[in-house]
Amino acid sequence: MSFADLGLMPELLAALDAVGYTTPTPIQRDAIPVVLAGRDLLAAAQTGTGKTAGFTLPMLQLLSSRHAAHPSTRHRPRALILTPTRELAAQVEENVSAYGKNLALNSMVMFGGVGMQPQVTKLRGKIDILVATPGRLLDHVGQGTLDLGGIELFVLDEADRMLDMGFIRDIRRVLAILPKQRQNLLFSATFADEIRALASSLLKDPATVEVTPRNTTVERIEQTIYPVDREAKRQLLEKLIRDGEWSQVLVFTRTKHGANRLAEQLDKHGIPAMAIHGNKSQSAREKALREFKANRLRVLVATDIAARGIDIDALPHVVNYELPQVPEDYVHRIGRTGRAGAGGEAVSLVCVDELKLLADIERTIKQKLNRVVVPGFEPDPNAKPEPLRKAPPPRGPRRDKPARAADQVRRDQPSQRRR
User: What confidence category does residue 408 fall into, taking pLDDT thresholds of 50, 70 and 90?
Assistant: First the structure.
């Protein structure tokens, strides 16, 4: 099957050809006809499956075909894509611009950590597609600089991560503002019960597409566990990078402080590295991503939230310097490699403190992962586990507390000192 077989217009096919895409992925094959037909959609797809094109391509076609029919929406966005993080918002808008380059449609990305005024100025012009994070979106609505009354199509991307980050109240506030007559698309890595509950309140008679079974990992990814003492992790990581001649490595830590410390240590020992997390300024985050994508930076050290939206073709190596405390996050992390049909390698450095986390991960993915002990880095058999340093934000029931939701709104505002 080709993209032409899905009923996409020639302008979109030309844009896809320019970026080298010829064959739709399963999520694109199943989702695009549904969206083009005007139906609501509930879609489950892991990262790296091409889901962004699955909703942006038909969105562009629908808006283009209706372009002259709604002059009243000329100064109001007609489609809204809501994402959990700045990086993902920027990535999605880049895709919208690339796929829609042959169409008379304008797009804009909106997130916190940068000044409001340039966004206000841009909103005064013609914006067809708005990609935004919840906090900054609600800031603009509250200040009267954004009118969402013209939204025809609404996309909630990475809904599972939205809930994990405590955005459920903000999502409900956004839904209350949108026009009642609209097309809704919800994309999530899993169909957890809370996702289905959200979908039931958002979607009307939706088509359901599920291309990846829940919590499974990408089969093309080679996964390896390296048992090691906690104090020797950095030295082992340096050895793996140097011996393997790894040129582009995404490394995950649990905490922002840990990301900073590891990046500084690697850089000091001759391995160019930078950290990316929520406490970094927007300009620093963009610089780190730009350098990493251009292969001028060998190692990018990231926390889970900051890494959402990092979309790099053929990223060869992902390293779990510390295992995540939520098993599903392991799937999200290693999904940064092995994307779009390419292979990849996911490495986890596991000390005695993390053995229970490893068991939870293996139980979740229903797979026993291969262990490799590197000579000179054999873990001490008598080592005693220590309590893990937990990483914010808290998960579970606490995320729906009002104080938690308010804190998430503040995270998108540039006036906060911690930014």
Answer: very low
pLDDT category of residue 308 using cuts at 50, 70 and 90: low
Structural domains of the chain ordered from first start: 4-210 (3.40.50.300), 221-371 (3.40.50.300)
Secondary structure (H, E, C), the chain: CCCHHHCCCHHHHHHHHHCCCCCCCHHHHHHHHHHHCCCCEEEECCCCCCHHHHHHHHHHHHHHHCHHHCHHHCCCCCEEEECCCHHHHHHHHHHHHHHCCCCCCCEEEECCCCCCHHHHHHHCCCCCEEEECHHHHHHHHHCCCCCCCCCCEEEECCHHHHHHCCCHHHHHHHHHHCCCCCEEEEEECCCCHHHHHHHHHHCCCCEEEECCCCCCCCCCEEEEEEECCHHHHHHHHHHHHHHCCCCCEEEECCCHHHHHHHHHHHHHCCCCEEEECCCCCHHHHHHHHHHHHCCCCCEEEECHHHHCCCCCCCCCEEEECCCCCCHHHHHHHHCCCCCCCCCEEEEEEECHHHHHHHHHHHHHHCCCCEECCCCCCCCCCCCCCCCCCCCCCCCHHHHHCHHHHHHHHHHCCCCCCCC
- pTM value is 0.64
